[in-house]
Amino acid sequence: MEETFHIDTVCHSGRPSDPRSAKETACYDLLDSLGIAYERVDHDAAMTMELCHAAEGVLHISICKNLFLCNRQKTKFYLLLMPGGKPFHTKDLSAQLGCARLSFGPPEDMERLLGVTPGSATVLALQNDTAGEVTLVIDRAVLQAPCFGCHPCINTSSLAFSMQDLTEKLLPALGHAPVLVDLPEDSNA
């Protein structure tokens, strides 16, 4: 039997009034301190892009995939932001980054470096990477949208804010200049 995904159908402006975890609250604190206006919707844990589609409908945005990756030696780590509907093929990204054998990073490294668990990777988690060990990689297609959608370090809420605020306020404040790549729609492209 298929489980039901519950989502608040109301789009809220700004931070929630009820208590949240420290890591989620830190995201709201960061956005508020930067003067970034955001919309929010709460929902059950969204572990897949398919479940994120419900949040996209309420927020009227597209939520991008956030993939935590590493090289074979587990000495270089990457957070890739790419369109949610685009397929991911490691060879396409590896070639553009000039590294071999990228794979998904281990959950324990994601938690150690970004302070989040699988399903909750987000650009906002880069505030926890104070040593700058994670390289932010953005598919240029993400930057074409007027708004940006992500989780606030937990996959039970989704946020939307302007792309301009992402590029002009948030990324500079995080201190992670992105590496821009062009991932194909199809691996044969």
Give an overview in words.
Pfam families: tRNA_edit (PF04073). This is Prolyl-tRNA synthetase associated domain-containing protein. Residues 43-167 form the YbaK/aminoacyl-tRNA synthetase-associated domain. It contains five helices and nine strands; from the N terminus they run E-H-E-H-E-E-H-E-H-E-E-E-H-E. The strands form two sheets. A five-stranded mixed β-sheet has the order 5-3-4-6-9. It has helices at residues 22-33, 49-59, 90-97, 107-114, 163-174, and strands spanning 12-13, 39-42, 65-70, 77-82, 103-104, 134-139, 147-150, 157-162, 179-181. With 189 residues, it is of the alpha+beta class. The mean pLDDT is 90. It has a single domain, classed as YbaK/aminoacyl-tRNA synthetase-associated domain (YbaK protein). A hairpin with a 6-residue loop joins strand 3 and strand 4 (77-82). The chain is 27% helix and 21% strand.
Keywords for this structure?
YbaK protein; five-stranded mixed beta sheet; 189 residues; alpha+beta
Q: What is the name of the CATH architecture?
A: Alpha-Beta Complex
Radius of gyration: 16 Å
Please give the count of helices: 5
Query: What is the β-strand count?
Result: 9
Strand content: 15-25%
Structural class: alpha+beta
Topology summary:
Elements (H helix, E strand, L loop, with lengths): L11 E2 L8 H12 L5 E4 L6 H11 L5 E6 L6 E6 L7 H8 L5 E2 L2 H8 L19 E6 L7 E4 L6 E6 H12 L4 E3 L8
Parallel strand pairs: 4-6, 6-9
Antiparallel strand pairs: 1-2, 2-8, 3-4, 3-5, 7-8
